UniProtKB/TrEMBL annotation:
GO MF term set: 3-oxoacyl-[acyl-carrier-protein] synthase activity; beta-ketoacyl-acyl-carrier-protein synthase III activity
Keywords of the record: Acyltransferase, Cytoplasm, Fatty acid biosynthesis, Fatty acid metabolism, Lipid biosynthesis, Lipid metabolism, Multifunctional enzyme, Transferase
GO cellular component, one term: cytoplasm
EC number(s) per entry: 2.3.1.180
Pfam family, one: ACP_syn_III_C
Domain Beta-ketoacyl-[acyl-carrier-protein] synthase III N-terminal: 117-194
Record comment regarding domains: The last Arg residue of the ACP-binding site is essential for the weak association between ACP/AcpP and FabH.
Domain Beta-ketoacyl-[acyl-carrier-protein] synthase III C-terminal: 232-320
Taxonomic lineage of the native organism: Bacteria, Bacillati, Actinomycetota, Actinomycetes, Sporichthyales
Family classification: Belongs to the thiolase-like superfamily. FabH family.
Enzyme class: transferase
Protein name in UniProt: Beta-ketoacyl-[acyl-carrier-protein] synthase III
Length: 323
């Protein structure tokens, strides 16, 4: 007789306990870029809505920025690193493919040999990682998880290419998730468009990032825009119940197009961290959440709709309750 496997414990609720961030100290303005490439502050602002972005210095590595953001999130959650039993690092800009960053990040934070792995879903990575952590906690595989989105895209960009150099930037954002009396994260809505792999691509390490901006814009403003109602349906609420909309900070024209015709309330808060942070790929969602919280635009209990979308092409989104 074959013994049956032990089933997972009864599904539990999951909530976000705290967010954290790390923004590199070096500020790069549009005027700075105009010295390297044929552009101007007016041109960049009108096209993508960015006024400045952050570039990491040599010592601000993927691991270092992850540790700083992770420690900030753990502190905000009222925990210590020893309480964390799962670390997920989302990034598409590691300098080398092996090893992943998560085990070293966990070690440097002082976590006690937790589960640790990297996830690469480009600009959708943080939302995919939230879903992975949520499901690990719901099924009993984890008690408290740290999710980090981190990028150092300045080392992957050709700074003479106006199509990419004006957009991408560096930084890290993080969140701590744990079992909760009430469900604080909705089921994830995700999908992909694998027929467009070259819309955003870095072919090899000795090449730079390439992007077909028009293809990405069309996809984001049609297919991705239509996912917002699906995300609300999965959460059992409507767009009218959403307090804040935090999409991936791709560019302001995409954000504006996603909002057009949607049934949000007039007072819904919309993240526009891209203006001073640039496009930080998997770090953009948690950084934008932190910016809204720091300025008092969102507070505890608010329902936040977020969606990440990017290279692959791939997307993921969910709603969470602000801690």
């Amino acid at each position: 007789m074959n013994p049956s496997l032990t089933p997972p414990p009864h599904p539990r609720n999951t909530g976000v306990l705290g967010f954290g961030q790390y923004r590199p100290s070096r500020v790069v303005t549009n005027d700075d870029l105009s010295k390297l490439v044929d552009t101007s502050d007016e041109w960049i602002t009108s096209r993508v809505g960015i006024k400045e972005r952050r570039y990491a210095d040599d010592d601000e590595t993927i691991v270092a920025m992850s540790v700083a953001a992770g420690a900030d999130a753990i502190k905000a959650a009222g925990l210590s690193a020893a309480d964390i039993d799962l670390v997920i690092v989302s990034s598409c800009s590691l300098e080398t493919p092996l090893p992943g960053a998560a085990p070293e990040v966990a070690y440097q934070l002082g976590a006690n040999a937790p589960g640790a792995y990297d996830l690469n879903a480009a600009c959708a990575g943080f939302c995919y990682s939230l879903a992975a952590a949520d499901q690990a906690i719901r099924t009993g595989a984890s008690e408290r998880a740290l999710v980090i989105g981190v990028e150092k895209l300045s080392q992957w960009v050709d700074h003479t290419d106006r199509s990419t150099s004006i957009i991408f930037a560096d930084g890290a954002g993080a969140a701590v998730l744990a079992a909760s009396p009430e469900q604080g994260i909705s089921p994830v809505v995700w999908g992909s468009a694998g027929d467009k792999p070259e819309a955003i691509i870095a072919r090899r390490r000795d090449t730079k990032l390439e992007m077909d901006g028009r293809a990405v814009f069309r996809w984001a403003t049609t297919d991705i825009r239509d996912q917002l109602t699906r995300i609300c349906d999965a959460a059992g609420i409507t767009l009218r119940d959403v307090d804040a909309f935090v999409p991936h900070q791709a560019n302001t024209r995409i954000i504006d197009a996603m909002l057009r015709g949607q049934d949000f309330r007039d007072d819904v808060v919309v993240a526009r961290d891209i203006e001073y942070a640039g496009n930080t790929s998997s770090a953009s969602v948690p950084l934008a959440v932190c910016a809204l919280a720091d300025t008092g635009h969102i507070t505890s209990g608010d329902k936040v709709l977020t969606i990440g979308f990017g290279a692959g092409l791939t997307f993921a989104g969910q709603i969470f309750v602000m801690p």
